Amino acid sequence: MTKCDKDTAITDQNLRQFVGYNMKRAFLSVREDLANVLEPLGLRMTSFSALAIIRENPDISQSRLAEALHIERSGVVVLVDELESADLIERGRVEGDRRQYALRTTEAGETKWKEAERAVHAHEDALFHDLSTEERATLRDLLRRVRRT
Amino acid sequence: MTKCDKDTAITDQNLRQFVGYNMKRAFLSVREDLANVLEPLGLRMTSFSALAIIRENPDISQSRLAEALHIERSGVVVLVDELESADLIERGRVEGDRRQYALRTTEAGETKWKEAERAVHAHEDALFHDLSTEERATLRDLLRRVRRT
DNA sequence: TATTGTTATACTCTATAACTATA
DNA sequence: TATAGTTATAGAGTATAACAATA
């Protein structure tokens, strides 16, 4: 008998004991649904985050944005090109240093942010529907306390 | 004044309100550290998971392994090649159906799994060091309850 | 010399689609 | 016709390395 019964459910007990395994599965669900939610707004997960950081930190440079997003400067170039092309942010100049840009959201960027923020809240309401308000807050706070590398 | 003060910390309040943002950051930390932990064992995150599933579901087929791992069958081929080359699993034949394989761990695979399981437990102990045992269990259970797409 | 932004390139992970051999 | 496994290819996301302009 070398055949695994086709009607027997596959188990993953070995893996379910790990926090990381459950985190990966949960994150992939979040990522997939969030991508679908942001796509009609012309945003990706990373450009949504970039828009948020720029909005909250006006006149931030690309290098500092890279730090905030935990990606390389080279990646930020594409990201900022994307947001600038969509007229959601602009590359202002810095007096006294012609190397760097001062990134700021445009009016359209502000509007887009508010729209996206609402959409993402709705997305989370759906995805975390089985969790109470308190449980969602607990989950968020526990995730925040995971050691950063 | 168009310059963002270099000494002022960048804030991410807009994003921190979302569970998904914190989940992404936490997951990237987990993934990076886990990759480092598994590398010396000759495993990647996915091959670790595959080894666990095969061990727990002896004689599973590649198609059913794909389902369990939530990846495509084409991806499983490479994964199984990898584990078979390392002599951690073997492709057994199924009597009555020459299309499919019956995947099973080898002795070396069993040993490797136990070694990896210990290493991953140590990795999680380090990463979730700021969480109590109860909090880790809570985190794991909350993640498990996120809606699957 | 160091920093900012840029470009070109490569790597990892995964999906899609077309194929083969079996059923 | 349908299924299991395979192959080739492509895409998303990100990193690495070398470069020009400026400090």
UniProtKB/TrEMBL annotation, chains A, B:
Record PROSITE patterns: HTH_MARR_2
Species of provenance: Celeribacter persicus
Pfam families per the UniProt record, alphabetical: MarR
Source species, domain of life: Bacteria
SUPFAM superfamilies on file: Winged helix' DNA-binding domain (SSF46785)
Domain named HTH marR-type: residues: 16-148
Cell wall biogenesis/degradation in keyword set: no
GO biological process, one term: response to stress
Annotated protein name in UniProt: DNA-binding MarR family transcriptional regulator
MF-aspect GO terms: DNA binding; DNA-binding transcription factor activity
Keywords: DNA-binding
Matching InterPro entries: HTH_MarR-typ (IPR000835), MarR/SlyA-like (IPR039422), WH-like_DNA-bd_sf (IPR036388), WH_DNA-bd_sf (IPR036390)
Keyword DNA-binding in record: yes
